[in-house]
Design goal:
Layout: E1 2-10, E2 12-19, E3 23-27, H1 38-47, H2 55-58, E4 65-70, H3 78-91, E5 99-104, H4 113-120, H5 122-127, E6 129-132, E7 141-146, E8 152-156, H6 157-160, E9 164-170, E10 173-174, E11 178-179, H7 193-199, H8 202-205, H9 219-228, E12 234-241, E13 247-253, H10 257-270, E14 271-275, E15 278-286, H11 293-296, H12 298-304, E16 311-320, H13 332-338, H14 343-350, H15 360-370, E17 374-378, H16 384-389, E18 393-395, H17 398-409, E19 415-418, E20 425-429
Parallel strand pairs: 1-15, 3-19, 4-5, 4-9, 5-6, 9-12, 14-20, 15-16, 15-19, 16-17, 17-18
Antiparallel strand pairs: 1-2, 7-8, 10-11, 12-13
Length: 430
């Protein structure tokens, strides 16, 4: 007898059929309702910030304002955040020409005009000056100091030179920083490539505390927040979304304290109990994390890079993601993996003293996961050879992938299905 379950696949859903005898558990986000009035919730948070003055008190006529916003790889509701934020700034006497919107692209690609309009809304995309952060533009950075780990803090000059920085974003689970949001808008969002590489170094990326949904003793989170504190007058506006990408809550104010409150709130529904560990995990992946292989690889981490993994060592993770942007990286992420015969070979190369390249942290995290599990990738936009170059197995459908995994691991293998892996923090139960 088969059990039919739904998993996310980009902007749609797939039906997955698992034999009842094999199904151990199915995990999905609870149905948490969005707020009745999103604009009202955003305004209320801005006017009642955590451990900080309101924007109306912080802003003053003549000040230069930088509003830092997420890029196209995040489902942040930036177009909903901007109207209440701009209204508060207007009430404080801030003029349009003194506002700059900076896309926190980190090491990602720049945006098209259509993407900017999608993210900001057509009115704001044309109304304000917008800048795509370029991590490779050394001349566009300001050096502010070093963190205790020795990370050089080089920040986009348009951000560093602003009198007030408003960091907007989304609090969701993150593969090695614990959660997105907060200071991540600054590092890696608007820092130089040298800063990003130093922060995402070999020892930190695979540190035992650099886990999904975990911040205590996490060297990457600590480094991010130390670096962010070099940038003064930062006010965050972070949203928390449900499975339908509706706003459930908004936190604003102090970059660390408000972020922590938001993460605690997210935990109340994002942490989902899962029976296990399983032999096979089927992981759905929704838009925009499903936009590329680079992003969809987060789905593996949510099975492995957690305090108690939900898949056995040597087990299989099946990731279903359409990946319309293909690999999502033209450079070292793909090349580092392609040039190796095994994940261990990649890690050996990366741990060599003095070896640093852009994207190495992505390859390291990915290969660290592949040291634990086997990956079968179900995707529309990436061909079989490219998937195999990434040391994974290609399957044209979840059914074929599951049949392959059961054949390899045995017909009695236990299966866990995760509806939308990058947005769920599995908590193992036995």
């Amino acid at each position: 007898m088969m059990v039919e379950l739904k998993i996310s696949y980009g902007e749609k859903f797939l039906s997955v059929h698992v034999p009842e005898k094999n199904l151990l558990d199915y995990a999905c986000l609870p149905d948490v309702p969005g707020v009745a009035n999103e604009a009202e919730a955003i305004t209320r948070a801005i006017k009642n910030p955590i451990e900080m003055d309101s924007l109306a008190k912080l802003a003053a006529p003549g000040q230069k304002i930088a509003i830092i916003v997420d890029d196209i790889t995040r489902p942040s509701p930036t177009h909903k955040f901007l109207p209440p934020i701009v209204k508060e700034l207007e009430s404080a006497g801030i003029k349009d020409e003194d506002i700059t919107v900076v896309f926190a692209t980190g090491s990602h690609r720049p945006h098209t005009n259509e993407e900017k309009q999608f993210l900001l809304g057509a009115e704001y995309a044309s109304r304000f000056k917008t800048i795509d952060h370029d991590a490779n533009d050394k001349g566009g950075m300001v050096f502010l100091g070093h963190t205790s780990r020795g990370t050089p803090v080089e920040v986009n000059k348009h951000v560093a030179g602003a009198d007030l920085k408003i960091l907007t974003g989304l609090i969701k689970p993150h593969s090695y920083a614990g959660y997105s949001g907060g200071g991540k808008s600054l590092l890696p969002g608007v820092c130089s490539m040298d800063t990003i590489i130093a922060d995402h170094d070999y020892d930190s990326t695979l540190h035992p505390n650099a886990l999904v949904g975990h911040m205590e003793g996490n060297p990457i989170r600590v480094d991010i927040e130390e670096a962010a504190l070099f940038v003064d007058n930062c006010f965050i506006v972070n949203g928390i979304l449900n499975s339908k990408k509706e706003i459930v809550a908004v936190v604003a104010g102090d970059m660390i304290k408000a972020h922590r409150e938001g993460a605690k709130l997210l935990d109340t529904w994002a942490k989902v109990e899962v029976k296990g560990p399983a032999d096979i995990v089927i992981s759905g992946c929704s838009h925009p994390t499903s936009i590329s292989y680079y992003q969809a690889a987060n789905a593996i981490s949510h099975c492995v890079r957690i305090p108690h993994p939900i898949v056995r060592p040597g087990g299989t993770v099946i990731v279903a993601a359409p990946c319309p942007d293909g690999l999502g990286s033209d450079g070292p992420f793909y090349d580092l993996v392609k040039e190796a015969n095994s994940p261990g070979e990649v890690l050996e190369k990366l741990r060599r003293p003095g070896f640093f390249v852009h994207d190495q942290w992505a390859a390291q995290s990915y290969c660290g996961d592949l040291m634990v599990v086997n990956l079968i990738m179900v995707t529309d936009a990436i061909d079989q050879k490219t998937v195999e170059d990434m040391l994974a197995t290609y399957a044209p459908s979840v059914k074929v992938a599951l049949d392959m995994a059961l054949e390899k691991l045995g017909p009695q293998s236990k299966v866990v299905v995760i509806s939308d892996s990058p947005y769920i923090i599995p908590v193992l139960t036995k």
